[in-house]
Design brief:
The chain is an all-alpha fold. The protein has one domain. The protein is about 75% helix and about 0% strand. The chain has 4 helices and no strands. The longest helix is centred in the last third of the chain and has 32 residues. It is elongated.
């Protein structure tokens, strides 16, 4: 059995789960920041935590966009195009790239929805 030496082995499946992983860390950090702020000062405006969450959101979206771009490169590297259903290292790499691109898009939407409430609420109550 030969080992796949393409770039897929460099990232492995970590690239595939990087978008959802970044989203989950962003969700947890945003929730903890808002919960700590509201527990200590529920009647104070959310301005300082709003800035923190927006910075976290920008960083999370940058990481997700990077994963999506790498996934797109892997997907477009296939000379045969869709579908990626052959049992070859190139098709496996292209399929993982396509799945990574789709998961990155879904994760970007999820990050936007996590950050959206901070734009509408002024105080915790």
């Amino acid at each position: 059995m030969t080992r796949d030496t393409t770039a897929t082995s460099r990232y492995g499946l970590w690239l595939l789960v990087s978008g959802p992983l970044i989203w989950s860390v962003h969700f947890l950090a945003s929730y903890i920041a808002a919960a700590l702020h509201c527990a200590k000062r529920p009647d104070v405006a959310l301005a300082d935590v709003r800035v923190l969450i927006l910075v976290l959101t920008a960083a999370a979206l940058a990481g997700i966009v990077w994963a999506g771009i790498v996934g797109l490169r892997y997907h477009l590297a296939s000379p045969d195009g869709l579908p990626h259903d052959d049992d070859t290292p190139q098709d496996r790499r292209s399929f993982l790239g396509f799945a990574t691109l789709l998961l990155a898009g879904l994760s970007a939407v999820a990050v936007a929805f996590v950050a959206m409430p901070i734009l509408f609420f002024e105080v915790c109550r």
